[in-house]
Fold:
Amino acid sequence: MKPVFGAREKDLLNRIGERFGFTPRREVTPETPYPWLASYPDKIDWSQTISRKPLHRFMDEAVERFGDNPSVNSLGKSYSYQEIGDLVNKVAKGFNHLGLERGVKVGLCLPNCPYSIISYYAVLKAGGTVVNYNPLYVEQELAAQVEDSKTTILVTLDLQQLYPKASALLESKGLRQIIVCRMSEILPPLKGILFSTLKRSEISEIPEDVQHVSFANLINNDGEIESPEINLDGDIALLQYTGGTTGTPKGAMLTHGNLSANMAQVLAWVGDLEPGQEKFFGVLPFFLCLRHDAGHEPWNCDGVGAGAVTALRTRPIAEDDRTNQGDGVDGGPDDL
Structure:
């Protein structure tokens, strides 16, 4: 049964559109099945088929199509899709060696950096579930999320701002190991040396025991991995916690089907993207990307789907960034 939509409703829709700066692009008639379609661009087909697939396939396909193209640009260091894809495979196999299998929760307590993207796709490729952690949280908040989500492995940086809080979580019920990523390794060579020398006080001393695994040791393998079969509607890809503004933070369970469908919708909506030719600015903190919109595809996934280069930022876009002519921004008004 189609909704009744007469002149009064049409006028109301037009006034709402004017209030928020939207102008209907199509004529609204009583035959219109859904009133909001009047504001859709002409190229958008409400009934189009939405393609779904395991999320890690998007990275595999981008590597196959755009292997030599830049994928990530961060802190002055650039990675091609082939380089990112190779690291994803090695990390995924390293996770398998640590016992990661379907449904195992892996936490990412990281700022916007290449480790986030690599670890995200690696967890999914190994069959696990990603749990985003806000690195700005205090220890008590992180511990509560570890226990609630049943996270068993946590990935973080070797910085004093992050590692001590992560290390304390080993006492939380269920957390077995921490993957420690060196900050100096994602900097250009000279910057990496200077950081290790001049910022030594900001780098944590990491114990050498079974509870700590360095990123270098994690990727010390051939990267040959066979991903498990994924149930698009049953396997949870991402467990994203709400902000807790109105109560205790709750984990939103998002499947591979949920997120791949959302990505297909976004790419359809911005259908004029040129695959392999775009540049996105990743300004929105990755660990917050779904906090206010459980349907928003995580950070760079839309960029990967378009074969774009993602320029990672940990602060609002600087003046010199504006000359780079990015085609998309994951962020809010304050980031611009």
Q: What stands out?
A: Confidence is low (pLDDT under 50) at residues 290-300, 316-323, 325-336. The chain has two domains: 7-39, 56-266.
